[in-house]
Amino acid sequence: MTDTRLSKLSELVHDQRDDVSADSTSIPSGAPSTRREFIVGMALPAVGAAVAACAPPGGGADSARAGSAATGQQRQGVAGVSNPDSRADTVHRGPHPTTTSAAGTANVAYRRFDPTLPALPAERTQRLHFHAREVPVRISADTVVAAWTFEGNIPGPVVHCRVGDTIEFTLTNEGQVPHSMDFHAAQIDPAVAFRSVAKGQSVSYTFKPRYAGAFLYHCGTSPVLMHIGSGMVGAIIVDPPTPLPAAKEFVLVQTEFYLEEPQNGIRPFDYSKMLATLPDFVAFNGRPGQYQAEPIVVNRGDRVRFFVVDAGPTVPCAFHIVGEQFETVYLGAPPGSGINGVQTFNVPAGGGMIFELVADVPGEFPFVNHGFGHGQKGAIGILKVV
Fold first, then answer.
1. Which fold, 256-385?
2. What single string gives the DSSP state of each residue in 46-93?
3. What letters, b where the CB count within 10 A reaches 16 and e where it falls short, cover 186-200?
4. Which of 18, 232, 304, 356 is deepest in the core (most CB within 10 A)?
5. Which phi and psi (to 5°) does residue 50 adopt?
6. Smallest Cα–Cα separation from 304: which of 333, 327, 330?
7. How many other C-beta atoms are found inside a 10 Å radius of the C-beta of residue 372?
8. Which is higher by pLDDT, 78 or 272?
9. What is the arithmetic mean of pLDDT over 282-306?
């Protein structure tokens, strides 16, 4: 397609954008996104506009998304802050909201994220009801981010279940733009289960995990980069049918933060930085360096098991513990996928692995993303053996 053709198509989208409804609820709650919408949402804006403009007249959600993209980097008034427009993920007109104003920023408390794996429920059916919320989250003493979240935190709640358990899941969207939920532990039709819902709407589905391991969950609304990058991630830990040896178990979800300068004391997420993959911070469980200030403490002789999930959205996690080696790393479903005597192993973005050692030497052992350009941006903590 020539530059002239692209220019004309972009002008056409611009001219037609005022015909698009500003009501995000105009998308039917049960309507799955098309493959083109998914790809366009992840592509460069100009390409997305061109493809959408080539759609037949009355192209429904495709044309509506292109219209929204044309509104560009608009913002709310000075009383509030907005994440940059994510360019193609909704028919919501105008800026992407962040939920807060300067008046409430000082009241956002800092809380260490407890890395301890929650106890396994006795019941074989779990009924989970999560809420998509656009709220401010303090990730350090001097940084509050304009987050999109599950249950108001980065990461969302850790889910713990067994192979074959029934997960009855509902997501209710309390945000201003569409959101969805993609469980990597599920084998299910994504067009139905992982569909986006508008503000005030819910989506429900049921699945049974077939494989044990450490799995990611995340918002799958297009562009996925913006929704994962703004904080909509978490971990689901699935135990094998025969339990692993007793251990002190901890969950680490690595995330990247791509941020603009503060507005009214809050830092919006920056979509252009996400595309450039130059994060300001990289963190375990949503707070850079939190386990340096408040280490993870175990006793000498304890078996220690880390479930490491890399939420990304982009960079890997070369997980390593200084002064230790891993007795076993499970690459897939435990216990049949273990390798022994490992110094470092790479967890890809969107992946999860299980790292196990016996803490038989007392001391303070840094655990880190050994890709130190990212480790030194906050993906580091201390395992203290007493």
1. Immunoglobulin-like (2.60.40)
2. HHHHHHHHTSPTT-THHHHHHHHHTT-S----TTEEEEPP-SSS-S--
3. beeeeeebbbbbbbe
4. 232
5. -65, -45
6. 327
7. 12
8. 272
9. 98
Question: Hey, what CATH topology would domain 125-246 get?
Answer: Immunoglobulin-like (2.60.40)
Amino acid (1-letter code) at residue 225: L
Q: Is 256-385 in the same CATH topology as 125-246?
A: yes
Calpha distance 23→74 (Å, rounded) = 17
pLDDT digits (tens, 9 = 90+) for 99-158: 444 446 778 999 999 999 999 999 999 999 999 999 999 999 999 999 999 999 999 999
Residue 20's alpha-carbon distances to 67, 176, 222, in angstroms, are: 6, 17, 18
pTM for this prediction: 0.78
Q: Which amino acid is at 108?
A: V
| The two three-digit tokens of residue 37, written as one number | 């919408």
Long-range contacts of 75-82 (CB under 8 A, 24+ apart): 78/264, 79/264, 80/264, 81/146, 81/263, 81/264, 81/266, 81/268, 82/146, 82/268
Q: What SS3 state is found at 295?
A: coil
Instruction: Tell me the domain boundaries of the chain.
Output: 3-70, 125-246, 256-385
DSSP 257: E
